[in-house]
Structures are given as structure tokens and as C-alpha cells.
Amino acid sequence: MVPEALFFSAILFVIGVVGVLTRRNAIIIFMCVELMLNAVNLSFIGFSRLYGASGQVFVIFVMSVAAAEAAVGLAIIIAIFRHHETVDLKNINLLKGWCSNCPWPNRVECIRLPAPSPSWCGCCRYCR
Amino acid sequence: MPNGFVYEFLFYLFGLTAIVSAAIFVTRRNAVAAALWLVNTMFCLAALYIMMDAQFVGAIQVLVYAGAIMVVFLFVVMLLNLGLPPSVADIKSKGARIIALVAGLAMLAELLVLARQKLPAELPWLPRETSVTTPITEPLFRTYLLPFEITSVLLLVAIVGAVVLAKRRS
Amino acid sequence: MNTYAALMLFQHAYDPQAPVHGAPWLWFSIIKILVVFTVLMVTIAYLTLAERKISAWIQDRHGPNRVGPRGLAQPLADGLKNIMKEETYPSAAYSPLFILAPVMSFIPALITFAVIPFAAPLPTPWGLVDMSIADLPVGFLYILAIASLGVYGIVLAGWSSNNKYALLGGLRSSAQMVSYEVSMGLAVVAVLLLSGNVSLSSIVASQVATGWYFFPLLIGFFLFLVAAFAETNRLPFDLPEAESELIAGYHTEYSSMKFSMFFIAEYSNMTTASARLTTLFFGGWAVPFWTTVDTAPWHWWKTVITLVCFMIKTGFFLFLYMWIRWTLPRFRYDQLMSVGWKVMLPIALCYLVVMAGAILALDAAGVAPSARFGDFVPTYWAILGVLNIVLAVLVFVVLDRGRLVSPASARVGPSELAELRAMATRGPAPAQGD
Fold first, then answer.
1. Where exactly are the structural domains of chain B?
2. Do chains A and C meet with 3 or more Cβ pairs nearer than 8 Å?
3. Which fold has domain A2-84?
4. Contact call for B41 and A74, based on CB within 8 A
5. Do C151 and B71 make contact, defined as CB atoms within 8 angstroms?
6. Of the N and C termini of chain B, which has fewer Cβ atoms inside 10 Å?
7. CATH architecture designation of domain B1-86
8. Tens of pLDDT along chain B (170 residues)?
9. Chain B residues lying within 8 Å of A49, measured CB to CB
């Protein structure tokens, strides 16, 4: 049954990757990462049928890392939500210097001004 | 012992259910529904673990993933009131989708090629009488004792980090 | 039944003391599932009556006494009423999950009972039948895992009703159950240290051999009891459905049979939690001071006696649940969370360290190297018990000092008294922000 388990694991992992690449909701992306971790766990368990119980130990490590990651990641999401009032990754791009609704042609040179809403960059007259 | 038609049927049933639920999960726009489909995937994976003689890990999978991590996800979704689908589409642009498709197919092909490697023979099943925790305690507390202890530090760091991040500054 | 199955039934009719296997095992499993499910549902129905009778007794009333002799048919009338009532669907509810939520709280509540051994094995012509539906090797972990799923039903009911009271109830419940699960798990680790196995049948077997665990693990028992109350959302931890603030919380929008399923789930959780307490700390089906009943060779009368014993013990804990419900007021929400994280969890962690150290030291000192799995060793038992009593005194008297465990009986401090007097003379202080 090990080849089948590895097959299921590969498909689940790819579903997780595609989810991360296509979705914009930060929480769903997070869950996709959890799905990828689960897929890896499945192959670890499969390999533990062949090479002994060390695979199961790795799964326990992966689970504790996943729990730590979920705690920190969700705290980050909550902090972002407090600031931007959205978890859409499209709007979380302050390092670019402009927001996603900014149609200003020279937006690279935008200077950050006080914005009316935290999710807007306030760099030009469209966002002000 | 665990061979025969019923075993194989259940194995494929749980595996395919896991894949179908995962596929439904990535396509849901409603975050709560998505989380529940993911929980279903995790259940099926727990069943697969148990069917591959990893009973302890199977129980821990339900306990940690379905019972704790996903509950926290749901909790956050409800706390931020993100449950109902947003008005704008949640999917990235066409270019991103094409890139995702190509990347996904390439990765799938690679993983399937890797999965077709010749594998050694399976180990025998543990006798029914042994305690389920016995086989993993040996590697966990001897071979991997240092990583195990470092995990606890990692969890501590995560707790501190989560508290600091989520704390409301007054 | 076809001829092959009939042949299979008689093929194993040789050793009544060996475990049953093959086709008879399947038949016995099906019979056990049906019987246990029926008994559990009838018990739950009559628990609702018992709850009302006990509340009436505590409050000096009569309780339900109109339907049937002394009100004994009241559960039937209630069930009929719930089935006949109109099902309401709030227009703003998210209907798939609104319908799924009662089911998701109902099923985990019922299937936890599957691993609990409720009597001594029954010898039949086809072999020895285990008196638990499935004696899983992961035993207790299965219970923890399934119990942690009960939260989904409540959370989803709260969210999908699209009602702010229901949502608050759901949020409270998820936070509460996740917090108390941790202390519950840690409290049980001490039991697993003593028994050396996670399967419930071996936990019972080792208690039969070495004595019940509530004495050497007194604080563990207390922590588990409190966590069990919190897990089942019963008073004093019933904040998810606090009637006075949240108008019944997560099931505000539910009516008729869907409401009834939440109700059944609550009572079923109570029953399972009582059975768990019995199994982990009070010897499961073991009869006290009568070792011949608890050990092989098995007879049908041993099964009957141990079953009755299990029912009495579980019944006692069910009574305790009701007794406490009609005696104690509910916690405030911040008190609940601070008890969970700042009191229960540190105590459980310290307790685990102390007990593990004590067991290791006793083993190393050679008091009884095989006591944990072999037979009853009085010194071993007495040392662990005395250690627990000392710890209990430390926790409840020295650390607590009348702040948390006994606030109701604690004396009011002078400053508090002055404040109360001032309040009595000039009426309640105006609320902030008025």
C-alpha cells in the first residue's frame, strides 16, 4: 500500500501548492500550507512502513512545527487585519509604496501621505 | 494480516476522499466551508495512518490537526468575521492561475516519477498486544532526543511570538 | 443467515475462554453496537427526567409528575413534543452548516462511548466477548481526539445561525474547550504513567491488579473532573449557553429536533465523561474488595455484577454533575479563561513533573519495580497517596488561600466590606461612560 500512499501524498501536495499560488485570502493560503504539511506527513508514514518508526517521529515533529506556525501565522493575520481591515493579500503590499487601487502612472515615485483608510496607500489623489 | 479486499477498498476510499475533499477545499470561497473540507481531508489522512500501522500518529493527527489547529483557524475566521465570501473574487489573475497550473502539473509529474522508484519490501506489522506508543518512544527519546527538546523551545518561542503579535497596543 | 455463516458460527465453538474471532466476532460487534446505542439513548432520555427531578429536590419542588406514574413518561412526552414542533430556518442562516451543526455535535458525543469497557468479558460458546464495542489500542487517545471534535458542532451552530448571541456562544465555547482540553490531557498523562498503556482495557486491568487510581492520583482526578465539567459545557462552566447574557448562546436559533440533538449531545457528553472518570480513576467495572469477580475465569454472572458496578459508579458521577449544576453559580468569562490557563494548566504541568519524578524515584529505590503492572504493593500505594495529599494541601490551602477554590465560603476583606456597605447606602455605582 506504500506506492498508493505516496501517490495520494503527491496529489495532495500539488493541490496545496496550486491553492497557495491561486488564492488571495491569507487564511486560505495558510490552510493550503497545512495541507502541504499533511501531504508530507502521509509520505513519512508511508516510508515508516519501509524503514521503521523514525518516519512517525518526523510526523510528530512536523505536527509541532505546524502548531507553532499556525499560532504565529494567525497572530500575524490578526495584526494585519487590525491594520488593513482585510486579509486579502492584494492589499498587503505597503513595501511597494502604492496600493492596488492606485492608477497613478508614475506610482513608483509615489510618496506615502496620510491615507483616509489604512488599506489605501494615500500616495496620490485617487487614494486621498 | 491487513490484506485482502476490504482493506484495499477502504484504503482507496479514504485516499480518494482525502483528494476530493482537498480539491473542494481549495475551490471554496467561503472560508468556513473550506476549513471544514480541510478537516475532512485530515480525517481521511488519520484513517490512512491507522491503516498503515501508525495508530498513535493517527490519533494525534485528529487530536492536533482537526481538534486544535483547525479549531483555531475557525476561531480566527469567526473572530475577524471573514466567514462569508468577499464581494470581489478571491482568485488571482489569469496569469497567476496559468502559472499555478503549469507549476502544479510539473510538480505532480516530478513527484509521480519519484514515487515510481523501486521500493524495498514492507516491514511486518506489529503484534496486536504491543502498546501503540512503544515503537515510537525508542527513536523519539533516544535517537532524536535533542530535536525533541528543541521542539519545545520552538513552541515556547511561538507562544511568546503569538502573544506579542496579537496583543493590542494601547 | 446463509449456510456458510452458520458453519462459521459453530466452527469456533470450542474454547469459551479464548477471545472470539472470525464471523461471530462481527455478529457480536453488531449486537453490542445496537445494545449500547439503545441503552445510551434511553439513559439520556431518563437523565433529562433525573435532572429535573434532582433540581426539584434541591429546590424543594415536586418536579414533573403529570405524565405517567410519578412523571416517569415525561421523556417520552418531551421527545414527542420535539418531533411535532415546527422546524424554523432563519432566513439569514447559512443553511448547509446550520443543518450539519447539530449532527456534528451529536455524533462525536455518541461515538466516544465505543472504546469504554463497561463490564468484564462475557464467555459464550464462540469465545470470550469483550464488553466494549471496540477495544482500540489507542484507547484513551481516541477519546481525547473525538472529544476535541465536539467543539465543531457548537462553533458551526454559532456561526451559521448568523446571530450575534449565537456567534458569541460559539466563540466562547471554542476558546473554552480548546483551553481545558490541554489540562485534561495533562491530567491523564499521570494515569498513563501508572498503567503503562493507553488502551482502556489495560488501564482497567492494571487497576484491578494494583488498586484504583483515584487515591495515588488524587490531584490528577480533581483536575480531570474540573476539565470534564468544562469540556461538557456544564455549570459552573456553561458560558457558551449562558441564558441570562446570551439567551441560550449557540442554540438560540434552533428549534424542535435540531435543538433536541444539541440537548442529547450534552447529556451524552455527560454520560461519556462520567464513564471516563470511572474508567480512569475508579477502576472501571471493577468491584471493590472482591477480587474473584474481577479476574478470570469469566462467568456470565461476573459480567452482570461488574456491569451493575460500572453503572453505579457512572451514575454517581452523573448525579455529581447535576448536584453541582444546581448548587454552584457560573463563572464570569474572564474568570473561566484565567482558571483554565493560569491555574489548571500550571498545576497540571507541575503535577505531572512531580508524579513522574516520584514514580521514577520509587522504581529506582526498588520499592516495587513491578508494582505498576503486577500486583498491589501497599508501600508504593501509600507513598504516592501521601504525596498527593501533601500536594492537595499545598494547592488548596497554601497556594489558594481562599481566593479561587473556596471564594464562596471565604471571608470578605475589610476594604471589600466597606465598599459593599457604601454601595448599600447610596445604591449601585453609576456604570462607566454614562
1. 1-86, 130-170
2. no
3. Helix Hairpins (1.10.287)
4. no
5. yes
6. C
7. Up-down Bundle (1.20)
8. 556 788 888 999 999 999 999 999 988 888 888 889 999 999 999 999 988 888 889 989 998 888 888 888 888 888 777 656 554 556 667 777 788 888 888 888 887 787 677 777 777 777 766 677 778 888 888 889 999 999 999 999 998 998 888 777 66
9. 52-53, 122-123
